[in-house]
């Protein structure tokens, strides 16, 4: 996505197109592994499953909305650091809603991952830390965590691969509606400019949706979500390798070790 957005400013259209592609790219997973892969519940999709799926997509759309508003005020690096507060919210929500235990080790792990994320991204001299922007991204982090918890809740009532398919489709629809009346023209425009990058990003998104929802069948949300947050560190390193972002290698390595 960072490669897609180099020189671009329409992240809403990029997200919409990527999620449309991700929806289509989830279908091969279902055909190869089976619609009921990693699902131990009763046959059929319940109303609870549909509700959780729609809720997860809607919460992600709200997260995207606040994140986009914050992007107008604070730097991308600041956004990435503060948005990692979602792992603290996820720990809290997993305990309150899902009844998962919170141990000292989990709290320590979450703190280390948060510090690692900040360390791998932060660059002195380029931050503004505007309060209004920080408030927006903190709100966004709450909705991000809530969306993840909805996913964990929903896979008990819907096979994870089907949940991934429909969540991605509902998310694409929500982002499309968020853009407004010129959504079609904006989506077509960015597709024409970055077709290959969007295809790759969409395929990666399908793998992400499928993998993290299947992971929920094996591990508690309070473990899966913090581990997923280490992606910030990996992205920072990948940015240096593939996008020529050469500054701060010592910080990136230290962040990777901590994470």
Structural account:
The structure is a single chain. It is globular and about 55 Å long. The protein is mostly helical and 259 residues long. The protein contains 13 helices and no strands.
Summarize the structure.
With 259 residues, the chain is mainly alpha-helical. It has 13 helices and no strands.
Q: Work out the number of β strands.
A: 0
* Basic shape: globular
- Give the radius of gyration: 18 Å
Number of helices: 13
Query: Secondary-structure element order, as H and E?
Result: HHHHHHHHHHHHH
Q: Mean of the pLDDT scores?
A: 83
Give the N-to-C terminal Cα separation. 22 Å
Structural class: mainly alpha
The portion of residues assigned to helices is over 70%
Describe the sheet with the most strands.
Answer: none
Question: How much strand?
Answer: under 5%
Return residue spans where pLDDT drops below 50 for at least 5 consecutive residues.
Answer: none
Provide the descriptors you would attach to this structure in a database record.
259 residues, 13 helices, mainly alpha
């Amino acid at each position: 996505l960072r490669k897609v957005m180099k020189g671009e400013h329409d992240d809403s259209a990029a997200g919409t197109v990527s999620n449309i592609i991700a929806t289509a790219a989830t279908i091969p997973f279902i055909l190869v592994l089976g619609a009921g892969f990693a699902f131990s519940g009763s046959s059929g999709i319940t109303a609870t499953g549909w509700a959780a799926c729609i809720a997860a997509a809607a919460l992600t759309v709200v997260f995207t909305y606040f994140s986009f508003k914050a992007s107008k005020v604070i730097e991308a690096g600041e956004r990435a650091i503060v948005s990692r507060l979602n792992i603290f919210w996820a720990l809290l929500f997993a305990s309150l809603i899902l009844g998962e235990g919170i141990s000292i080790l989990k709290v320590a792990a979450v703190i280390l991952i948060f510090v690692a994320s900040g360390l791998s991204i932060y660059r002195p001299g380029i931050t503004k830390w505007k309060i209004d922007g920080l408030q927006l991204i903190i709100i966004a982090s709450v909705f991000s965590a809530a969306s993840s918890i909805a996913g964990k809740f929903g896979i008990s009532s819907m096979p994870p691969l089907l949940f991934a398919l429909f969540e991605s489709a509902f998310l694409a629809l929500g982002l499309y509606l968020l853009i407004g009346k010129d959504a079609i023209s904006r989506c077509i425009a960015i597709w024409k400019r970055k077709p290959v990058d969007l295809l790759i990003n969409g395929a990666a998104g399908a793998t992400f949706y499928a993998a993290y929802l299947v992971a929920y069948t094996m591990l508690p949300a309070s473990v899966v979500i913090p581990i997923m947050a280490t992606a910030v560190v990996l992205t920072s390193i990948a940015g240096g390798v593939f996008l020529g972002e050469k500054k701060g290698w010592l910080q990136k390595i230290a962040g990777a070790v901590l994470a």
